[in-house]
């Protein structure tokens, strides 16, 4: 994973490392496609391929989602004991409601000593030839057929979801009740 702060770039130039801001770079200001060489923070992370198989065969790049410990992706279960009855109920409930992640259970045989999740909000583009060259050494597992079908559907739901303010259909009175739990939200004209 490459982490870049666009307001604090360390650009490599002939005279050495020059602190820069993205918007001040000549390539950006001149709208050119000249590459910028900069020092960036890189950290290894686990990932799962999001690109469809049919596209992956021909695409020069693949998209991966970062895989992290489940509680780092969704902190809603941090107070529950992993594997407990409450944990299982919450995982099943959230799997129906929450579309931003895909649950990957603890599996010590592949290095998952804790429950993990693929985070659809954290993606990276990786060169297909580079990834294929590393596949032998770094692929730790594959989803089984049932999980792969579910993964495709969850991913589709995440990118297909319709963004809306969930309180738009409430009456003025219902909005007041909603605000008790959700906090202050802006009413629509028909709710004033």
Ends: how far apart? Answer: 46 Å
The helix count comes to 7
Topology pattern, helix = H, strand = E: EEEHEEEHEHHEEHHH
Q: What's the alpha carbon Rg, rounded to whole Å?
A: 22 Å
Count the beta strands. Answer: 9
Average pLDDT confidence is 90
Portion in beta strands: 15-25%
Write a concise synopsis of the structure shown.
By secondary structure, this protein is α+β, with helices and mostly antiparallel strands.
Tell me what you see in this structure.
With 192 residues, the protein is an alpha+beta fold. Helix content is 33%, strand content 23%. It has helices at residues 26-29, 53-56, 70-73, 85-97, 128-138, 145-160, 172-182; strands at residues 2-3, 9-13, 16-20, 38-39, 41-42, 46-49, 61-69, 101-104, 116-127. The protein has a four-stranded antiparallel beta sheet. A hairpin with a 2-residue loop joins strand 2 (9-13) and strand 3 (16-20). The longest helix has 16 residues, at 145-160. It starts with a strand and ends in a 10-residue tail after the last helix. The mean pLDDT is 90.
Helices and strands in order, then pairings?
Elements: E1 2-3, E2 9-13, E3 16-20, H1 26-29, E4 38-39, E5 41-42, E6 46-49, H2 53-56, E7 61-69, H3 70-73, H4 85-97, E8 101-104, E9 116-127, H5 128-138, H6 145-160, H7 172-182
Antiparallel strand pairs: 1-5, 2-3, 2-4, 6-7, 7-9, 8-9
